[in-house]
Design brief:
The complex is a heterodimer of chains A (about 375) and B (about 100). By secondary structure, chain A is mostly helical. Chain A is built from 19 helices and no strands. Chain A has one domain. Chain B is built from no helices and eleven strands. Classes of the chains: A mainly alpha (about 375), B mainly beta (about 100). FE2/S2 (inorganic) cluster binds next to loops of chain B.
Chain lengths: ~375, ~100
């Protein structure tokens, strides 16, 4: 059969349009989701909070940031600064996302203020308004990849491949994020933002946007004063030159998988990774597990995975393997409406909850 | 207001929570580390998720959906995304049975 090059019709991903109304009508909004069975006693152990693992990781993270930042400044003007900025960039532009994420759940530390401190540092690094994103992420967990409800869908059909490629250095994404911060700093909140942020929180969103913009303004003033872009190499630019790891791991969370389903086994991906990537990513490679049980801290996710893996699709064996299955699926989704990568479950697993997502047609095998 | 039997004291571990349904309502019954019992509405005020699947830490219950927190002794909302306080219900223990006073 000749390959159909026609792109699928653009879906409406706004949170205020027809997709949103459709999701609500179909009962996909705030729906009951599938969960693997875990005895309450075991679950309590898994959920238990501790300051120690995140304190250790945060001391290493901030210590390495200072060390590599110092090295980059010290060797500035010679090639020797490159490895320092390479590491500094990943610590800033990629670790920020995982730290932001875990602290936003309040699961990184047992002590609340420690979560808040890390949350605000990481939000600044990742160029996210800490208030907006706390609420959008809550929505992402309520309505994961439900079109018209989830504000954090990375693959909007038909996927723009160029946009996905540029994400690895992120100029457009960072520019859009800065524009949102600038808009919020001027007191302007969009209609979409108002759908998931309660009115009582809007002044806080404006306040934090102003704090972020003030730091960027100070950096902007420091650069000509020092006659150097060095201030930007330390603040702001690492979000571009160091974000590749964040996108490399982030894109595989849901890419090529289903939309509008209420079983995380169908719309999220678990993938084994090397220990360095897992440290940078704070174990979010166990992504199905995280979505099913967001109360489990990052350091307990490997244990959770071991407990429920027989109820989940087999994990990808590496980042490479995840891309090998995701890229063809994403390309196919550009041309074939309703297609998604549907993984076989092991015989030990409970079947997918078909009754909960009849609205998405099963197109597997259509182009076989 | 009437006192009704919710559970036996041994049904809840210290620093844990149990779901109790009665008269078309759902409640969450808590036992703190000192062995005292407390009760609140059973659904989170954010998105109506059962709190019985959450985590009790000290005086707080963390909701299993978005990690919002309440003080279960006062019902106060303590951590976003919860903003609305929980209703609390009086409890008492007699003969190793936990009772709550409901409407
Ligand atoms: S449902 Fe409880 S915090 Fe959102």
């Amino acid at each position: 059969m000749p390959y159909d090059q026609t792109l699928v019709e653009k879906r409406d991903y706004s949170l205020t349009g027809p997709s949103s109304r459709r999701a609500i009508e179909l009962g996909l909004a705030s729906a009951e989701w599938y969960h693997s069975e875990i005895p309450r006693k075991v679950m309590r152990e898994l959920m238990a909070r501790s300051d120690q693992p995140a304190l250790r990781d945060t001391v290493i993270w901030l210590g390495l940031l200072v060390l590599t930042g110092w090295g980059g400044v010290h060797f500035w003007g010679s090639w020797a600064c490159v490895p320092f900025f390479f590491v500094y960039g990943v610590l800033y532009g990629s670790c920020c996302d995982s730290r932001w994420h875990e602290a936003s759940h309040g699961t990184a530390f047992r002590t609340g203020w420690m979560n808040d401190v890390v949350y605000h540092i990481a939000s600044f690094m990742v160029m996210r308004n800490p208030v907006n994103w706390r609420w959008s992420h809550a929505r992402h967990h309520t309505d994961t990849i439900i079109v018209g409800r989830d504000a954090e869908i990375a693959f909007m059909h038909p996927t723009n491949i160029w946009m996905k490629l540029q994400a690895f250095i992120s100029p457009i994404d960072a520019w859009q994020s800065l524009k949102v911060l600038a808009r919020n700093a001027l007191g302007n909140m969009s209609a979409d933002e108002r759908t998931y942020i309660p009115a009582s929180e809007l002044p806080k969103a404006v306040f934090w946007a102003r704090v972020h913009m003030a730091i960027y303004l100070a950096t902007l003033l420091a650069a000509p004063w020092m006659r150097s872009i060095l201030p930007f190499m330390l603040i702001g630019l690492p979000r571009l030159y160091g974000c590749w790891h964040m996108y490399m791991t982030g894109l595989i969370q849901h890419g090529g998988l289903a939309e509008d389903v209420v079983d995380h086994r169908l719309n999220s991906r678990t993938c084994y990774m090397n220990p360095i990537s897992r440290w940078i990513y704070w174990n979010m490679n166990y992504h199905v597990e995280h979505h099913m049980f967001p109360m489990v801290p990052y350091h307990a996710l490997p244990r959770l995975h071991a407990l429920i893996k027989d109820d989940l699709p087999p994990p990808c064996r590496s980042i490479w393997a995840a891309y090998a299955e995701m890229v063809p699926a994403v390309l196919r989704q550009r041309h074939e409406k309703g297609y998604f990568l549907r993984k076989d479950l092991p015989p030990t697993a409970r079947p997918y909850r078909e009754d909960l997502h009849q609205d998405v047609p099963d197109r597997s095998g259509m182009r076989a | 207001m009437t006192w009704i039997t919710a559970c036996s004291v041994d049904d809840i571990d210290p620093e844990d929570v149990l779901r109790f349904d009665h008269g078309g309502r759902t409640y969450a019954i808590y036992r703190d580390l000192k062995g005292e019992f407390f009760a609140t509405d059973g659904l989170c005020s954010h998105e109506q998720v059962h709190l019985c699947d959450g985590l009790v830490m000290g005086d707080q219950i963390e909701c299993p959906k978005h990690n919002g927190r309440f003080n279960y002794k006062t019902g106060a909302a303590m951590r976003a995304p919860v903003c609305i306080n929980l209703k609390t219900w009086p409890t008492r223990v007699s003969d190793d049975v936990v009772e709550i006073e409901v409407i």
